[in-house]
Structure formats: structure tokens, C-alpha cells
Amino acid sequence: MTEYLTKYRKYILECLEDENCDFAKLLDYHSEKLRHFQHERFIHLIVLVLFALCTVITILAVAIYNKLTLIPLAALFMVLLVPYIKHYFFLENTVQLLYKDYDAIYKKVHGFSQEDLK
Fold first, then answer.
1. What tens digit of pLDDT does each residue of 50-66 get?
2. Number of domains in the chain
3. Fewer beta carbons within 10 Å, N or C terminal of the chain?
4. Residue 63 included in any domain
5. What global pTM score does this model have?
6. What is the rounded CA–CA span in Å between residue 37 and residue 75?
């Protein structure tokens, strides 16, 4: 997903620089893609929260019940949680950049954007 999002954003930026682009079609296409990316981000948020809860529960079980056999599981959760958080933040930040790209495309189609309304 990281590579796909990076390539997609690069494509959108190239389209924004091309004055021969059909921005109305690009706006429709980008809106559809944005919905997919929002869904992907939401699913990853749910999984991240559940994974973090499992990590916390496992650490609490080790601390409260002195279940030393769960230490490897807690360590595994911690090791896996860090890259997952990193990936989620990449999704979050990239989707926010895509919102700005949407505003730029919208301005090319309709002649105004959110910043113009202030």
C-alpha cells in the first residue's frame, strides 16, 4: 500500500502540473480513490487499536498475574506494533496530503477552493 499510495500521489501531482489534463474527470477519479484510501485508513485504525489493546492486555497479564510465559508474546506484540504504527501514520499523513490535492483539483475545475472563501 505504501508504494501504491506514493505512486498515486506522484501521478496526481503530475496531472496538476499538466494544463491539458481534464480536471473534471480527474476530480471524479480522485474522489473515488480518496474514498478507497479513507476506507483503507479506517480498517488499519481498527486493526491498530485492537493490536494495541492486545499488547496492553498481555503486558498487564505479565505484570498483574506474574505470567512469565507471556513475556515472549508481549515482546512480539511490541516488536510488531512499532512498524504498524509507522505504517498507519504514513497512511494518515498521505491521505491528508490527498485532501490538499483534491482542493487543488477542485480549484482548477470550479475556480475557487476553501482558502478563497476565507
1. 999 999 999 999 999 88
2. 1
3. C
4. yes
5. 0.82
6. 31
